[in-house]
Amino acid sequence: MQIVLTKEQYEKLMELVYLGNWLVNSYRSDDRIEEYDRMAEHVLSFAPSMGRQDRVEFDEFEGRYFPSRKFDEELQQNIDEYDDDVFWNTLIERLAERDLIRAQGEEAVNSMSWEEYNRKLEPFLKKYEKEIDDSGVENLEVFKVS
Fold first, then answer.
1. Are the beta carbons of 52 and 17 closer than 8 angstroms?
2. Residues 16 and 62 in one domain
3. Which of 20, 83, 113, 136 has a CA positioned 20 to 30 A from the CA of residue 65?
4. 60-78 pLDDT, tens digit each
5. Confidence at residue 36, expressed as pLDDT on a 0 to 100 scale
6. How far is CA 111 from CA 20, 39, 104, 105, 115, in A?
7. Are 56 and 68 in contact (CB under 8 A)?
8. Do 90 and 123 share a domain, yes or no?
9. 124 lies in which domain range?
10. Looking at the whole model, is its pTM more than 0.70?
11. Are 64 and 44 in contact (CB under 8 A)?
12. Total structural domains in the chain?
């Protein structure tokens, strides 16, 4: 199979591959998913021939292409926005689910249909969405419960 891309399309493909591999592997250490690393490296290996050698670095010892620091910095805003969105949404969802379980009981929540679960979770989600929108983390506190 052969895919023909314009320079602009290739640049977007590089960005998508980099961000996708970052999503899958950035938090891993010894258990990286090598298939994604290899695919990202393969796509990046075409950068010099596409006039984008500034976005890659070639490691002579490993014989592989890696994203350059410049390329990484160019995409950092996308990563920061993603992290921020995931943080707030996860916080809101976990607090809402905690409160639903406290109100209904874990067994009752576990036996709910998705429709009932979502309907009963909605008020808790709205409560925390409003609080976060209004105050951020200003009013959040952690208490040790004995």
1. no
2. yes
3. 83
4. 998 999 999 999 999 999 9
5. 96
6. 35, 42, 11, 10, 11
7. yes
8. yes
9. 78-135
10. yes
11. no
12. 2
d(CA 126, CA 79) in angstroms, rounded, equals 26
Query: Based on the domain organization, do 48 and 88 belong to the same domain?
Result: no
pLDDT at 106 over 90: yes
41 and 84 together in one domain: no
Q: DSSP of 47-77, one letter per residue? A: TGGGT-GGGEEEETTTTEEEE-HHHHHHHHH
Co-location of 12 and 34 in the same domain? yes
State how far the Cα of 38 lies from the Cα of 65, in Å rounded to an integer.
10
Query: Would you state the structure tokens that stand for residue 99, as one six-digit string?
Result: 């409160």
128, 86: one domain:
yes
Our measurement of the distance from residue 71's CA atom to the centroid of its chain's CA atoms, rounded to an integer in Å, reads 18
* 64-72: long-range contacts, CB 8 A cutoff, minimum separation 24: 65/41, 66/41, 67/18, 67/40, 71/14, 71/18, 72/18
Task: With respect to residue 125, please indicate whether it lies within any of the assigned structural domains.
Answer: yes
Q: Of 58, 94, 69, 71, whose CA–CA distance to 19 is shortest?
A: 71
**Which pair of structure tokens corresponds to residue 73?**
């910095």
- Please, which pLDDT band fits residue 133 given cuts at 50, 70 and 90? very high
Residues 57 and 87 in one domain: no
